[in-house]
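So, read this over?
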Amino acid sequence: MSLISEKFKSKKCASSNISQDCSLLTGIDIIDLANGSYDPVRKKFEVGPRPGRMIGVVGFTGSGKSTLINQMVSAITIPFENGSIHVIDSEKAYKYSRMRDLFTMGNPDLISKFEEQFPMENLLNADTYLDDALGLLNDLYAFKMENAEDLMEDYTDINGDVHKIMPPSVITIDSLAALYSRSASANIESGEEDSNMNGGRTAKENNAFFSKTLNQCFKANIILAVCNHITTNISTNKFSPVQAKVPWLKPEENIKGGTGFSFLCDFFVRIHPGSKLSPDKDYKIRGRLNTLEVLKSRGNSSGRSYPLVFDMDTARYDNILSDVQFLYDNKVIESGGKVSRLGGFTFTKGTVLEKCKKDPDLEQAIREATYDVFKKQRSEDYESGSDALPQIPEGVE
């Protein structure tokens, strides 16, 4: 390294304490791979959200946004001794018991860890104004910077590389559409302004919040996980078409509370609620086949859609069944009659989950096949010129 580079690194980058060359995992392969990228120098894949960045999930009411984002952030933080989650529940909809069940999946060890790491008084924030979100972020940043040396933990990424990393702190905002500053809320409550009149000012305040906290989030590995609603505007003037505010959304679709977060998101997705699954034939669960649409990814292709299987009984997205559906969609699983085949394994939709529990090799084969399809798609994207992604050499794992 040159003297200039060495001096620059020591002077300018000393305060960036997080590891900048690793990714975290959400526990859902489809999401981690959809946000992944290939490093042609190290010949390795980086999958999942990057530390200290912003995640956004949008959709219509009831599409499963909150479930997805909470499932993701729990998987991101649980591996760390000092990982933390803080929820700005601006819609006053969260229950501690529901979050405990969602985060721990009934695992006694995880339940104990969850209750120790995320006691109720620290998880759900009673004051849910924009001012409180900013105060919480500032307090987290100050504390983590003051105690950076003691907080750093070893983290092993998906490639087996060990990083020294600042443990993630997640601030979940659910939803941005209902997040107001104290002054804006007071004007609405007093009748001075209605919510529509107040919308422009609130959008500017929210956008300023995300812009001025970017550096703090990056330095201290604070992840903003934002849920938001999509609304539909009906245009009556066919001669003056409205342009979409966010790529891949329809022109008539709108995101309330400001679009600043969507432009600053590292990974931004939409949930489309899909068809119901039949317990008699579709994986033998009461569920729904939803669709994840990638609106923006800094590591991979945008505009792609992927299946996510939602289990209504566990109220969670099922990772393995989502992988299996993805492989069916891409015709990787051979399906002849009722029997399906993948490599040397045979199963049906109704038995695949049970067989995975009994044979971890089947689960591993499903996950590896999912990985291989994504690897192939990245190569095709590069060759077609649809994204400026590096081509993946044959045989690279």
User: Anything to note?
Assistant: Confidence is low (pLDDT under 50) at residues 387-397. The two ends are 29 Å apart (CA to CA).
